[in-house]
């Protein structure tokens, strides 16, 4: 009886004992597992449903509105996926949510879009930090960065204004193919060879 790829396991108990065969088994399993990453990301995004956090709409609706606005404005697929997933970290990284979305999408997006994801929390603070006794101009520490305007525009045009209960928001299903497309093509990872 032959083992299926998911039944085969490496034989080492310490990485120093690993063989090429062991690592080919692990790599084969990783390829299959990685193909389901969009499913796991979309499932996690659905966890934002019903989580209002005091806002007029729940966090899923906010994410969908942000992506809908970007899509209707003609932004490319990668940008729209960034808009959709920008706050996915709210449930696990309440104090650093922007870092979570940025980490998830880093292998799949441009450095410019990664910067937008990673820094949008600071840029979004322009609209409310002053009410919390914080510096609303904290984003100014990036004023000389080439992607300052790009990130500022994201927050202004798509993020800060996406809390409308009656907005004609596109459903999550409309964005699923985009998520799958973007996450099917990693651009960079320490686990990828740099040679073509």
If you had to describe this structure to a student in words, what would you say it looks like?
The structure is a single chain. The chain is mostly helical and 196 residues long. The protein has a single domain, classed as Hypothetical protein af1432, CATH 1.10.3210.10. It is 49% helix and 0% strand. It has 8 helices and no strands.
Oligomer: single chain
Taking the alpha carbons of the first and last residues, their distance comes to 37 Å
How big a fraction of the residues is strand? Answer: under 5%
Backbone CA Rg = 20 Å
What is the molecular shape? globular
Number of strands: 0
- The helix/strand order is HHHHHHHH
State the CATH architecture: Orthogonal Bundle
Derived from helix and strand composition plus strand pairing, the structural class reads mainly alpha
What integer is the average pLDDT?
Answer: 93
How many DSSP H or I helices? 8
CATH superfamily: Hypothetical protein af1432
Low-confidence stretches: none
- CATH topology group: Hypothetical protein af1432
Q: Which helices and strands, and how do they pair?
A:
Elements: H1 20-35, H2 37-46, H3 59-72, H4 77-85, H5 97-105, H6 111-124, H7 148-159, H8 172-183
């Amino acid at each position: 009886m032959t083992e299926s790829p998911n039944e085969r396991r490496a034989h080492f108990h310490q990485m120093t004992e690993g063989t090429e065969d062991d690592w080919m088994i692990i790599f084969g399993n990783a390829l299959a597992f990685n193909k389901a990453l969009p499913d796991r990301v979309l499932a996690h995004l659905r966890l934002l449903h019903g989580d209002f956090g005091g806002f007029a709409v729940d966090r899923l609706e906010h994410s969908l509105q942000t992506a809908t606005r970007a899509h209707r404005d003609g932004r490319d697929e990668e940008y729209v996926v960034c808009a959709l997933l920008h706050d996915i970290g709210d449930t696990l990284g309440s104090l650093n949510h922007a870092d979570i979305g940025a980490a998830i999408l880093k292998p799949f997006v441009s450095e410019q879009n990664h910067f937008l994801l990673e820094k949008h929390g600071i840029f979004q603070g322009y609209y409310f930090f002053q009410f919390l006794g914080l510096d609303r101009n904290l984003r100014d520490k990036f004023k000389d960065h080439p992607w300052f305007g790009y990130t500022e525009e994201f927050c202004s045009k798509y993020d800060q204004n996406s809390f409308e209960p009656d907005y004609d928001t596109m459903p999550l299903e409309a964005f699923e193919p985009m998520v799958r497309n973007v996450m099917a093509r990693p651009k960079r990872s320490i686990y990828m060879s740099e040679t073509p």
